[in-house]
Automatic annotation (TrEMBL):
This is NAD-dependent succinate-semialdehyde dehydrogenase. GO terms for cellular component: cytosol. Pfam families: Aldedh (PF00171). Keywords: Oxidoreductase. InterPro entries: Ald_DH/histidinol_DH, Ald_DH_C, Ald_DH_CS_CYS, Ald_DH_CS_GLU, Ald_DH_N, Aldehyde_DH_dom, Aldehyde_DH_Superfamily, Succ_semiAld_DH. Residues 20-478 form the Aldehyde dehydrogenase domain.
Amino acid sequence: MLDLKDPSLLRQACYIDGQWVGADSGETFPVTNPAGGAVIAHVPRCGAAETERAFQAADRAFATWRETTAAERARILRRWFDLMLTHQDDLARIMTLEQGKPLAEAKGEIAYAAAYVEWFAEEARRAYGDVIPSPARDRQIVVTKEPVGVCAAITPWNFPSAMITRKVAPALAAGCTIVLKPAEQTPLSALALAELAARAGVPAGVFSVVTGRASAIGGVMTGSPLVRKLTFTGSTGVGRLLMAQCAPTIKKLSLELGGNAPFIVFDDADLDAAVAGAIASKYRNAGQTCVCSNRFLVQDGVYDQFAEKLAAAVALLKVGGGLEEGVTQGPLIDEPAIAKVESLVEDAIAKGARVVSGGKRHALGGTWYEPTVLADVSRDMEVAREEIFGPVAPLFRFKTEDEAIAIANDTEFGLAAYFYSKDHARVWRVSRRLEYGMVGINTGLISTEVAPFGGVKCSGTGREGSKYGLDEYMEVKYLALGGL
Ligand code: ADP
């Protein structure tokens, strides 16, 4: 029905302890295509009992998986990587159908998701420890790294594959086992990844996927004493709740939460480069990424010119279904998402913002929203504080560097920030003063498996990808050898 080359990648069951299973109750829930709303599949609506079993299996599997050599784990991960690329077209198609993003972007995400698997296959063999010069003659101090243990992962719908592999690949590389709950909107990409992991030789119980009731599954993930670590990507509100739920059992946590990225354009910027960066960082995935620019801060002298050039670039974006040729803007994920965007834009207009482009739902209907540019935006409007998660670029005006920094940092979030300037001294100065985990300087694209992704303040804790990403799944153990 989905027109896949390998139809067995479309799994409508959970993958628990190496078995494809339904919910105990037999219940399922539908997965729909955001482009038009058609039902494309049904997956099990599991709850606490199935999740408990997944963790018991993960706990049993941990005993043997932790004893495998790094090279053995690396070979399995490498095979998983190869399989993802072999099936890139089908995986991308499944993603576009359940998530809505244009097929070219979906293919790009599969390559990006696979890159995490390849990277951590390589990093598995470099989990080095330390030998520390001893303060006493009869002592040797050695530091080793060990897998944290059984892990739990909860992922969002905006990157249905990459948010999974950047958690599961380092967990497996470190020698941990992991149970995943994907977002309700996009379980099919997760289940297809599980199918390929099984084909790659990941043993039963090492990686399980449970779909269903978020709060029931999350309750076990955060409450079970078997689980040593929770890794979550999603909203700050849910992150806060999960963190509190993890407190009684003191779990290790990685949280990648909301953002409110500033994109600062200084007078000395290369404006054409800034516009290209703005398009890439704002309109990718129809604005539904946590590192999407949320506030454009443009210096007085180039404000009008930047607005004009940005509007011209936005006019070239093509809105439509993700499977259609040449489309760059798919629908938003669901009705609540578009209702939020609509209300943020209405609030801005009511408070004096000027619509430069777009500004309303798209004529296609459904959950398509017009790529939008708003000028004369001020800090009393909701767009200044709220994560838009849609294709809307609000332009704020500033006069001095100090003012830009103050506006940029005036948020509870601290994930990604961007700025454009050709002045070297300013580049260093501004980079230091931005309270963000990641700063794109003269670029609107920062995500790569080789660099540490993560935020500060209410944007979360921990880093994904890079050499730092493996440490999140390892504990440091100190051995003191006395009496030498
Ligand atoms: P988004 O706005 O991106 O949907 P959410 O934080 O609501 O962000 O969702 C991210 C992930 O968190 C999804 O997999 C969702 O099912 C899950 N989730 C939401 N609420 C809970 C909860 N109470 N317990 C566990 N997981 C939850």
